[in-house]
Write a structure and sequence with these properties.
alpha+beta; four-stranded mixed sheet; 4 strands; flat
């Protein structure tokens, strides 16, 4: 079995002021999920030691702006967290990684086609 995680970034396709819509996904074998969960838990504890890892998610927007769980973190601390996350992702044992980066407006069929073919698409 293969597990998939799909997430979007941007304000959505209906937002007339938004310039981009980004969709990313990765797939990994089911036998890897427990190891990945442990590694992500360790990563989250290293970034925010005072909160339970299961009580928050890593959000680039929060890191960049200093919002929510990162509201008391200065820019240097948040930048270091970005680097730590990037280093972790560099070695991430994903089965397949898909990124779609499209200016708005776009037709949804392009997203679905790209997901099915497993390509990196810049519209």
């Amino acid at each position: 079995m293969i597990f998939f995680y799909i997430d979007e970034s941007g304000t959505g396709l209906k937002d007339k002021n938004g310039r981009y819509f980004i969709l990313s996904a990765f797939a990994t074998h089911a036998r890897e999920w427990q190891r990945l969960d442990k590694e992500i838990t360790i990563l989250k504890r290293s970034i925010v030691s005072w909160a339970k890892p299961e009580d928050w998610e890593i959000k680039g927007r929060d890191l960049r702006r200093g919002d929510n769980i990162f509201k008391n973190y200065n820019w240097a601390q948040r930048s270091r967290a970005f680097v730590d996350i990037a280093r972790y992702l560099q070695g991430f044992p994903a089965y397949k990684l898909i990124n779609i980066h499209c200016p708005i407006p776009l037709k949804l069929i392009r997203i679905y086609t790209a997901l099915l073919s497993g390509v990196y698409l810049i519209c």
